[in-house]
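INTERNAL TRANSFER SHEET
From: sequence group
To: structure group
Subject: Malate dehydrogenase

Please process the attached sequence and return the structure record in the designated field. Keep the field labels unchanged so the import script can parse them.
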Amino acid sequence: MVKAVVLGAAGGIGQPLALLLKANPLVTELGLFDIVNTPGVAADLSHISTPAKVEGYLPPDEGLKKTLTGADVVVIPAGVPRKPGMTRDDLFKINAGIVKDLATGIATTAPKAFVLVISNPVNSTVPIVAEVFKKFGVYDPKRLFGVTTLDVVRASTFVAEILGDLSLSKDVVVPVVGGHSGVTIVPLLSQSSHPLPSGLAKESYDALVNRIQFGGDEVVKAKNGGGSATLSMAYAGAEFAAKVIRAVKGEKGIVAPSYVSVEADASGSAALTKELGEELAYFSSNVELGTEGVVKIIPLGKVSEAEQALIKAAIPELKKNITTGVNFVAEAYKTEEPRL
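Return from structure group:
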């Protein structure tokens, strides 16, 4: 029995994500929560002929608590989408409070759940969830994940395009490390399962890296004010959730990229720190998954000179993003104390 929960289930990411989770045969119960429309989304999904029983709640009458009760995996796409001209800092100011409140609900109702954070900016919202859990004494770094799968999905697709064969996109695997915004997204193209053409010009390589790093901007611009990357993000979120669920149910050897706390694996993070040349509290890299969540943080391995430069550029921005998330929670609890 697996209960999956989507917090923000009526939104642009939430609805297609909920649909994909309803279609997952391993999900036996699906809990949906949002501030509007959730009962309707749940009713619609409940007609689909797959095993998961679906329930949807709104905030009144302890809707969040009802949704989270018995949750095994909680996915958080809640928040506002990025609009043209909006920076990730602007986005943070709005979404940070939403994520903090949802994290409080999880801490008090489903503290043992595996929590998958999609809400942007992930580099800061994951530390927010961690700090809230610490306040309530329920923090387990092995069970908290920032979903960076979309960066890997984009890298696979864009490399397949360069190779001239989109049918390869499901097979191409490119490790993407660092974080989940702009320059913190570092594709290790030298480790691609399908090497780039040997004669690829530097300008083409740089353009590919930039497209992977700023693919979200491409979608925001194309939607012309109508939203951000929702469908591709829902696909990526469902892909990662499926891997977590399979691992929780005992499947061995599952490896997936995720933005996690270095506390999740002391030996793996020590090797990672040595490669980076300094310690970061959170970093995205390939992670081996198991029944307790993070089994192992996998080091970067051999990287090219160009990739080393990208990693060096990512570190200061990552540090700033992490500090922003931690400080947000510290400021919030100056005026309120957590209550179980």
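Handover comment: The two ends are 27 Å apart (CA to CA). The longest strand covers residues 282-290.
Transfer complete.
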